[in-house]
Amino acid sequence: MSRGYEQIGVAMTCRSFAEYERMFRLKPELMEAGPILDVAAGASSFVAEAAARGLAAKAADPMYELSAEGIYRHGMTEIEVSTGKLTKLPHLPYEDESFGLVLCSHFLFLYHEQFDYDFHTRALRELLRVCRAGGEVRVYPVITLQWDRYPMLDLLLEELRTAGFEASLELSELPFIPGSKELLRVQK
Length: 188
Ligand SMILES: C[S@@+](CC[C@H](N)C(=O)[O-])C[C@H]1O[C@@H](n2cnc3c(N)ncnc32)[C@H](O)[C@@H]1O
Description:
The protein has helices at residues 17-23, 28-33, 46-52, 68-77, 83-86, 117-129, 153-162, and strands at residues 36-39, 57-60, 99-105, 131-140, 166-171, 182-187.
């Protein structure tokens, strides 16, 4: 029996504020300190719900280049997005140190067969670039679509620590995928 499930392209998903709260163990003080950036936010309602609660939050995702109708079509058909486009250098359209909390749910680590280690380190650097000193970056989950721990996780943690960041794995309160207990927390 094979483990995990086969995924072609990157899935479009729509996790809620309540799910993010539990996945990332978000407490009101941390979110209120904000502003918050949700990276690879896709169709998640986290930012809309956060804004409705009076929190300062923004969402970034390459999918937002599409029109509303285009996003709808994308969701309806779950089309395969070209790997070439997806593997572009991650660049977030924000100034350095713009956010107190930067979240990335179900994108990094999960798709490690499509995105190599170099992509992951560049992506992490970009998340940290837009995070202000004293703020933090949280990534969930830290496993792959095969439901194995991201194979380069220890090296990544070591590199983050060598670069002067406090990097730790903490328990998530919402294990979406079997065996997925941890989130990555990097303090800048
Ligand atoms: C599985 S969804 C996660 C959506 C949301 N964070 C959630 O947990 O419901 C993965 C998202 O990654 C986005 N994505 C794909 N390639 C990307 C890239 N190179 N940089 C940033 N986001 C990317 C996709 O558009 C998609 O919305």
